[in-house]
Known about the structure:
Structural class: alpha/beta
Radius of gyration: 21 Å
Strand content: 15-25%
Largest sheet: 8 strands, parallel, barrel
Shape: globular
Number of strands: 16
CATH class: Alpha Beta
Helix content: 25-40%
Number of domains: 1
Bound molecules: beta-D-glucopyranose
Number of helices: 15
Amino acid sequence: MVQAIFIFPGNFLWGAATAAHQVEGNNTNNTWWAWEQEPGRILNGDKSGLACDWWGGRWREDFDRAAEGAQNSHRFSIEWSRVQPTPDRWDEDALEHYREMARGLIDRHMTPLVTLHHFSDPIWLAEMGSWENDTVVAYFEAFVRKTVEALKEYVTMWVTVNEPNIFAALAYQQGLFPPGKKDLSSAKTVIVNLLRAHSAAYQAIHQIQPHAQVGIAPQYLSIHPKKSWSPLDLWSAGLMNNVMNEAIPRTLRTGMLTIAGSRKHLPEAKNTLDFIGLQYYTREYISFDLRKFSDLFIQRSYRSDAEKSDGNWLANEPMGMFEALRWAQQFNVPIIITENGVNDRDDRLRPRYMLQHIHQVWRAVNSSIPIKGYFHWSLVDNFEWERGWTQRFGLWELDVETQARRKRPSADLYAEICHQNGIASETVARHTPQILNTLFPDT
Length: 443
Ligand code: BGC
């Protein structure tokens, strides 16, 4: 067999991503913990509980696993409610815990990438109206200053807000995340405040660390009209693309939020991106449907013949990754893929999904798109929000009862990719022979 390799640029960041509430455990002082206590909110009534016990110290063994798997970076997030348990108190021990984690990465020759907001909020903030109340911007900025001061010795790459588009939609329009609102105008207010909070954080971080790299991490959904000949489907797909993909990051370039036909000037947001964090999972086909009144008449579906993940949650659509990266080029800043992965308990799809998506990343790198890193979601199975423990994204499987970890085959596959800084034909032949000929024709 001829051997070949798709090689990535030197210094490419290879890692996995995690989020505080999903892995730490015992996050009793945040909105998600409270939400988990309400009947019917989480599938099966699952609770985050000890999660992956990172607060109890198991981050160490999981960072060891990542380092042994040749990962040279890791993305983790800070739990605001731990750092600021009440509006008038900072918890220095919590900050020390995060300093230790960041140092722990450096000791393992891994670059930390730190997210400042990943879906969870302190209870006290919720009592003030959370992201609907404009005062959140000043509170968030103060929290960011405190955290960046504490971690600046170790961290220079920051994501201000994880998936502001998904957070606003799920928490304020679809009612699936706390505070469970179903109100389009609330969602719009929240988007404005998220953009303002990002902008304030951007300036604050640069004051403290002039050379910091600060970005945001929206989820990019590949959106196609279901019937490409239908003006109504085209219109719906265009609207969805505006709301889901374009509105937020464009504001960070232009200072003008244009969303669902309305415009708002946000001059402080202009040019507040040093990089864009891109999170890509799947592609949807969109049609116009009069019955979908509260969803802007948008009906969403997958390609019927696409391979699906557990519970038909995600469709394996690797070309959407290439499309996402081409799209992100318009912002003229480096791109980091801050999340990509699939829920797949038995690891039957993940190896293929991973290779096909990373292959598209390689193609994009070779079209001169400035991509600096790839973070797989996730390192170890973790608490999957409203789906509880039912969906498994980890390279490592977690037994929630015993805290035991078991390596999935994908962890070895990813380790080979990270180690070789590329995709070798031998790797594909060993792990996913069924796609060898499509990835390496004539080898
Ligand atoms: C989120 C993660 C989540 C993953 C899988 C992303 O939208 O940032 O927190 O676990 O998707 O649903």
